[in-house]
Amino acid sequence: MSLFKAREWWSCQVGSGEEFDYGCLKVGSFTENPNHKIVVGSHQGILRIFNPSGSHVDSMSNNNASDLLLEKNLGMPIIQIEIGKFVSSSPVNQIAVLFSHKLSIYDYVEQAGVTEHGRQFDLELNYEHNMNRPTFNMCKGQFGSGGRGNKESSDCEYICVQTLDGVLFVFEYERQTMIKSLPHTYLPGPICYLSRSDAIATVSSNYHVECYKYQALAIASGTDHGSSSNNDARRKGLDIDPSLSVSQSSKKVLPEWSFNLGECALGIQTTQRIRNASQTILVLGERNLFCLTDNGQLLFMSKFEYNPSTFIVYNSEVSQSDTSNPGVRYIIGTHSRTLFIAQDGHIRWAAHVDSVPVQIEVATIQNIRGMICTLSETGLLQCCYLGTDPVSTSIPTIMSSTMINIGEAEEQLTKLNKQIKQAMNDPTLVVKRKANAQVTIQIDDTNQFSTTDETRFQRHDVESTVPSSRVNIRVKSSEAIQNTLLTVHVHTPLCAQPNEIRMGHIGGISAIGTASIVFWMRDDLTPWNLEATFTVSYNTMSDNICHTIQKSYKLPVKLVARSYQQPISATIAGQCKITLGANKPVTDLSRVFPELSTGDSNQQQGLTVRFYGSVENVSILASSKSQKYRFQSDSLASIWLFSNLLIERLSASSSIDFEFGDPLPLNDYFSIIDRHYELRVECEQINSTLEISSKQFRAIQKRLLSKFKDKTPSLLDNLDILLENTNQQILALADRYEQSRYELNRCSHDLSCATKLICLLLKISVSLSNDNAQLLNAILSPVTSDDNEQGWEETVDAAVNYALRTVLARSKSTEPGSMPSTIGNSAATMDINKLKKRIQTLCERLEKGGSLVSSSSIRETNFSPDSAHSSTSLSTRKEKPIGSNRRRKHDDDEDAEIPNGDHDDAFSMLPSTNARKQYNDEDDDN
To answer: What is the CA radius of gyration of the chain?
Structure first.
C-alpha cells in the first residue's frame, strides 16, 4: 500500500447505476487548442464529454455543472472509444464509437449560442459500418503506410476492428478494405498497431504475442496493399464486399514473430524509445509486465506482487526531448486502489486513489500537463496529480493497560444478563418473529395434460414422447409482501419447468401471485417419489424479515406410467411377487387407480402398467375371495411405487389394515445391492485407469516436446504412435466411464425403490410403530449418493452395525460404542457380504420383537423368541424365521382365485436353505 495519496483536482460521478470497462475512457482535443477533453461512454449506451474547469461552485462538490459539455444516449452499449482523424476532408479529430455490431464515426460540433445559455455542443454522425459479427475491440493506425511516417501518411488514421471470433476488419474512412481471420484464434485478445513496422500485434488465445505484417494480411485476404503508389487507385476502385465470408477470401497467414507469455494479457500498448529507433511493446499480464521490441525480443520483465487492473504508457513526447532520462514510462493501476508510476521496470512513485481504476489516461487539462484521469467500473471519474498527502487510515484504539477487576466484571455481567432477561419477558419489547401477513399457497387440482418430447431416454426401443401436466399456483397474502420467490422441487426422474419464479411484490387481498408449472418425466429411471414441494419465501413490509412457507402436492401417476393393454395371463410370469392381505374386501383397481383405467371390465381385478422409458411390466392383481392384493414384476424396484400408492389411497378412504405373511424378498434386494456395489467398483477402477493413462499421455507429450526442441534432429522412437494409441485409450475409457455412470445412476434409483419397499414390508410384517418405522427408514436409508467417497453401502453398513450393537444387541453386556467410521475407505475395500448379513440380522431381530426406539433400560434388554411372543407392541400372529418358506395352510385355498398355477414360484423369495442356514448360524461380531 502507498504511503501517499493522489491529490484530487477534479472528480465527477458519471451517471447512476451505469457500468464501465476498459475502452470506455478516452482523452483528446477536437480543435487546435492543446487542452484535452474527456470522453466517457457507458455500457448503457450514454456518451458524455467533459471539460474540467477546476472551479467549484461549493465545497460539497468537486465539479461544476458546466463541466459536462455533452450527454447523448446512443441507444446501444458502447464497447470502446477512439479519437483521431477518421475523415479525410476534415482537419480536426472525430470520435469513433464501437458498438456490438456497428462502428460509428461522429463529428463533435459546436454551435454558437443565441441566448444567455451560451454555446451548445452536439454529435453528428459522419458515417458508420454495420458488421455481421459481434465486435470485441479496435485500434487505430496508418495501415499500409509501410512505416515511412511521411506527412502524407501521417494525416490518415484508419481503424482495425477485431471480432469475438478473431476476425480483423480494416476500415479506411467510409470503406471497408480488408477482412482477415487470424489463425488459431479462439478467443480475442488486446490489439495494437506498430507504426514503425506497419504491423498489428495481438495476444492469441494460447497466450502468445503474435505480430502480423499488414501487407501480409492484405495479400492473404486478397487485397494488394504492397506499395503506396497504387493506394489512391485502390481507394478509388477497390472495395471488398462486406458479405464476403472469411473462408472465401482468406489464405493462410503466419505471424512475423511470436513470443510466449504463459499467462492471460490484460492490455497491450506501444511507445517509442530514444536509445534506438525500434518501437517497444508493453504487455500487461495477470502476474507480470513484458517489454518487447518490435521484432519480438524481450527487453525486460517485471513480476508483480499485486493484482493489476489496467495500465497506460504515457508521455512519449517528453521522453523524446528529455535525453537525460529516457526510457519507457507507464502507470499501472491495481485492485488495491494504488497507482504505480514506473520507468523501465523500476517503480518511481506510488499513490493511493479512491477506487479501483479500469482505465487510466494522461491528459493536458487547463494547461496542466500530466494530469492523471482514472475511471472506475461504477463511473467515478477523477483527475488527480501526484503529491505527498498521507493516506487517511484509522488508527486502532490503544487499550488501557489497567488490570481488569474480575469482581466488578462479573457483577456487571450479572446486571446485563438480568436486564436482558427482563426485556425478553416484557411482552411489549419482544420482537415479533411471526409474520403478520397470512400467506397461502393454492394449487389447482385440475391437471392440464399434454405431451412433450424433451426427454433424455437412453433406450432406443421405447417411445420418447411422455405426458406433461400443467399445474397452476396462486399465492395470496393478507398484507403486502415483497421479494416473493416460489421454488419447486421434485424428485428425479421428474422435472419441473420453471423451478424458480420471482413474483416480486404482492400487495393485499386483491393482488395475487400466479404461476404455471409444467411437470414431466425426463429420465428413464425408476420413479420413487411423486411428491412436489412448493416453497414460497418472502419479506414482510413491517419487519423486513424473511419468512418461508411450504406446501406439498402429489403429482398424478399418469406422468410416469401408463396402462399396458396385455392379457393378465401373459403378465403373471414376473420373477418378483408381493402379496398383501387386507382385513376388508378388495376395492376395484379401476377405482384405486382411475388415471390408469381405460374402462375395461377386466381392470377391476387386474391391471398391468409400465413406466415410461422401460420395457418391464408391473401387474396388480386383486383377489376378492382371499382379500389380497398381489404385485408382480421382473424388477423389485418397480413394485414399490404402486404398492405404496395402493396402501396410501385405501388407507385414506377407510381404516384398513394390511398384513404381509410371506418372507421378505431379500434375495432380490441383495441382487440390487450387489449390482450397485459392482458398478461403484467398476467406476472407481475406470477412473483409476483413466488417471494412469492421462499421466502416460502427458509424459509422452513431454518426451515429444523435448525431441522437437532439440536442435539436432533425432528419431521419434514411435512416440507418435504411442501418443495416438494412448489418446484412443483415453477416449475409450471416457466412453466406458460415461456408460458405467449411467448404469450406476439407474441402479441407484432401483436401490432407493427397493429399500423403501423392504422397509414398508417389514413395517407391515411386524406391525412396527411409527417411531420404529421412522428409525428403520433412517437406518436403511433410501437416499443414495454416488458422488462422494462414502457411498450408500458404507453409510448403511455403519448405521446397521451401530443398531445391532446398541438397541438390537443380543447380550446384556453389550455396550453401545461410537458409530463405526468408514470415511476414506474406497468401495473396493468394503466387504459387501458382511453388509448383507447385517441387514439379514437386523430383519431377524425386528421380527423377534426388537425395537429401534431407545429407552432407559434398552441396554439391559435381551431379545429372545420368548420375549418376542410376550411383547404387547407386536402382532399376536405366530412368528417365523425371516428365511422360512412355511405358509399357513389356508393360504393355498385363498390364493386359488389369483391366476397363478405355481404357488411356490409366487412366494419363494429367499436364498436356498443352505444359504439361509449360513446367514443364521454365522454371528455378526455381536
So the answer is: 40
Measured from the Cβ of residue 383, the count of other Cβ atoms closer than 10 Å reads 26
- Please list, in sequence order, all residues whose beta carbon lies within 8 angstroms of the beta carbon of residue 821, skipping any fewer than 6 positions away: 798
CA dihedral 843, 849, 852, 855 (to 10 degrees): -160
Query: Left if phi > 0, otherwise alpha if psi is -120 to 50, otherwise beta: which for 411?
Result: alpha
Residue 379, classed as helix, strand or coil, is coil
Helices 832-847 and 913-921 pack at an angle, to 10 degrees, of: 80
> Which stretch of DSSP H or E encloses residue 199?
strand 199-203
C-alpha to C-alpha distance for 842 and 16, rounded to whole angstroms = 67
3-state secondary structure of 523: coil
The 10 Å CB-count burial string (b at 16+, else e) for 152-177 is: ebeebbbbbbbbeebbbbbbbbebbb
Q: What is the DSSP string of 602-669?
A: GGGTEEEEEETT---EEEEEEETTTTEEEEEES-HHHHHHHHHHHHHHHHHHS---EE--SPP-HHHH
The helix-helix angle for 832-847 and 666-709 (nearest 10°) equals 160
Instruction: Report the number of secondary-structure helices (H) and strands (E) in the chain.
Output: 17, 43
Give the amino acid at 111: Q
At residue 675, φ and ψ (nearest 5 deg) are -65, -40
**What is the spatial distance between Cα 38 and Cα 27, in angstroms, rounded to a whole number?**
5
Q: Are 561 and 611 in contact (CB under 8 A)?
A: yes
CA 805 to CA 811: how far, in whole Å?
9
Quick one: which of 280, 259, 372 has its CA closest to 326? 280
Helix (H, G, I), strand (E, B) or coil at 68: strand
Cell of 837: 448379513
Q: Are 186 and 166 in contact (CB under 8 A)?
A: yes
* Phi, psi dihedral angles at 870 (to 5 degrees): -85, -5
H-only helix segments in 790-864? 792-805, 832-847
Q: Tell which residue, 788, 840, 790, has the closest CA to residue 819.
A: 790
Q: b/e per residue, 36-58, with b = 16+ CB within 10 A?
A: bbbbbbbebbbbbbbbbeeeeee
Query: Comparing C-alpha atoms, which of 798, 795, 835, 834 is closest to residue 819?
Result: 798
pLDDT tens profile 696-711:
999 999 988 888 887 7
Listed as own residue / partner, the contacts of 871-878 with beta carbons closer than 8 Å and 24 or more positions apart are 873/767, 873/769, 874/766, 874/767, 874/849, 875/659, 875/766, 875/767, 877/659, 877/661
What b/e readout covers 341-368, taking b as 16+ CB neighbours within 10 angstroms? Answer: bbbbeeeeebbbbebbbbbbbbbebeee
Distances from the Cα of 423 to the Cα of 409, 416, 431, 543, angstroms: 21, 11, 10, 19
- Interaxial angle between packed helices 770-779 and 792-805, expressed in degrees from 0 to 180 and rounded to the nearest 10: 130
Per DSSP bridges, beta strands 298-303 and 658-659 are unpaired
Whether the CB-CB separation of 363 and 381 falls below 8 Å is answered with: no
Positions of the chain with pLDDT lower than 50, given as ranges: 1, 57-60, 115-116, 149-153, 224-249, 318-321, 394-398, 430-433, 570-571, 812-814, 816, 823-824, 856-926
- Can you tell me which residue has the cell 503506396? 228
Residue owning grid cell 423369495: 909
For 859, which DSSP code? G
Question: Could you tell me the domains of the chain?
Answer: 4-390 (2.130.10.10), 439-558 (2.60.40), 560-659 (3.30.310.200), 666-692+723-921 (no CATH)
Residue 910 backbone phi and psi in degrees, to 5: -110, 170
Task: Judge whether 775 and 853 are in contact, CB under 8 Å.
Answer: yes
